[in-house]
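Structure, all two chains, one model.
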Amino acid sequence: MFTRTDDKITTTQTVVIISCFMLGSGVLTLPRTLTERVKTVDGWISLILGGLIIMLAGICIVKLCQKFPGKTMFQFLKEIVGSWIGSCMCLLMVMYFVCLSAFEIRVMAEVTMLYLLEGTPMWAIVMSFMWIGLYLITGGINSIARLFEIILPITIVVLLICLLLSSRLFDIDNLRPVLGEGIFPVIRGLKSTLLVFIGFEIMIILPAFMQYPKKGVKALIIGTSIPLVLYLITFIMVVGAMTVDGVVRSTWPTLDLIRSFEITGLLFERFEFFLLVIWIMQIFSTYTICFYAASLGLAQLSKKNIRPIMYGLLPFIFIVALLPKNMNELFDFGDFIGTVTIYLFGLFPVLLLLITTIFRIGAVKEDE
Amino acid sequence: MNSMKGYFLSALSILLLLCLTGCWGNKEIEDLSVNVGLALDVGKESELEQELAEQGATYPKKNIITATLQTVPVLKGNKEQQMGNSKSSEMFLNTEVTGDSIFQLYRQYSLRRYRPIIGHHLKVLVISSELSRKMDLDKLVNFILRDNDIRPSCLVLISTGKASEALISSQPGDIPSFHLRSMVENQFRNNKILAPMILTELDGIMNSGSSFVLQNLVTAKGEVEFAGAGVLKGETNKWIGTLNEHEVEGLNWIKGDIEGGVIKTYDKSGEVLAYEIKSASTKIKSKVNGNDISFHVSIEADGRLIENWDKSQVPTDEKFLKEAEEYFEEELKDMLHKTTRKMQEKFKVDVGGFRNQLRIQHPKVWRTVKQDWDETFSKCDITYDVNITITDYGSSAK
């Protein structure tokens, strides 16, 4: 039977896990997906709004979890909606996490095969990635958190340096005028911004592991702000250099921006490899935490030991990752996952929160 | 049990040895042809190709494009190096291939040269104006933009004559592609050079439907010179004409791309006066009055009086400095008017970035006129206000 050890994480670690989860495949395609919808330069406003909305959705989840201290949503869902619906929803969430982790590794494999390891077979890239991920999550949430604490600062520093070096291509005129076509384009872009903030849903399990679950909201807000700021800088630099019309024509605009310049005399001339390296680390973090969430969900649902479940899930993730036949299917898959997130972790928790508040389910109220 | 574990571990460690071989997909750089330059001309098979074709080297194709692929390095035998004759001193190899799909042309390369070609280091793309007049530039760069090896930092240039001639050098040891790539950096010395147009930027401009200019090249006797600019019309992405050096200078002033350079003029007695630009700034203001759109361009420059042939005038004299400033302003205004006239009357295109100013300053108006902006622009009123300041006169007070 699955027993929760004293595997606790600090508030900072919670922040880091949320940030690492959010920073995933989105950062390379964000400027294009966003601009395609917005069609003006105002995407950055949508980004800020999207971030705020996600924070609200995340807060709902945290508040909900705080009503059931020490339990993950997989455990307390039954108490709210009954065992049958609860189990179904939990299974859905597990499937969601499996799909998301599969999607992340597939995107990683595609980009790696395009720019880094041309000619290496997909299974070789994907499998090595998956096994190392498995090795990490067998160590539990604490090992994951500690690894992420190493990854995140490296990511931030390298990403910022890469973008800073691109500043000579930057032209502020490409980001003007602000709101030239009114507020409507900004609203139009909201959906694609929500997709890059996928990751807040990890709060369905994290509060149960937190040393101080009361700081959940704070952790969530900071954890969302870090990716928000990084996304903002990325978007501004990429659109500022490539213009709206250029961004929509590039499959991986952020990468293309970094590929658009060479710096002589700075030890390295080309910086896309650094970007790819940190980006692979970020994908790895998203993948592992999803993998962990999925296994934890199954373990708690079936009340079995988590180890065999981790091993058992591995082939499923592999198969799902190789399902999309081409890039279009892959991007559609990503959009589909994003849509599911909105319903499963955006609207559903609000509903649950309403139910628990109205029917006073959840033993401990936070006022003490 | 213990021995089982031992066997397992030793088997595992032997398996792990496989990983120690390192990267088995590596390719030695000496065995690759590094593609550094690409020139595109109107398709015409070279004598060599015709001869090869006569002997059966042909496949279904239309001879639309002749691509000249410049590759480095050239392998040299010891003998040749010692003899050092002029032919073998070339550091590069140009291969001409004719056909239609540029990607296929790149692959045809492997039928003639044994070292596989790689695109990671493509520095320049030169397109002849004749080809560009006939073909949409978008089609020409389509493969290059899509390819995953070729970097979007590749520079795009246009040439008056054959583009392949721009990839030939008369100087021993010189690689023309690198030469061209570095020459655009000379903007701070000469204001007749346009800001470099890289593929990333070109892609955005072509998609926006805006007309644009590309740095033009002329060639003679193995020498290449930057001269003027090729004008490409936005709707078709085709070449429609050339701006001369003087007009490019004017265009750079309008676009605010001046990083240095010179204004030369003659005073009333016909003596040379030259001005070294230290800093310059341009502001374009758009005004919308009903259906009329007009622009006001104000230019300010700081610099130094650097050459004065008239001995009777000394720069310590305030009156002379004021007079000299006026000469320079006169010259600059004349240049700007010529450029504007060429843009508005001859080519009827906006390549001076006026569209951006209108888009930023009057987004609502812009939406209504953006469809035929070039047409609207050619009827716009453009006024200039030039203010040139001489801050000093160098190390000579005479």
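Residues 318-347 of chain B form the longest helix (30 residues).
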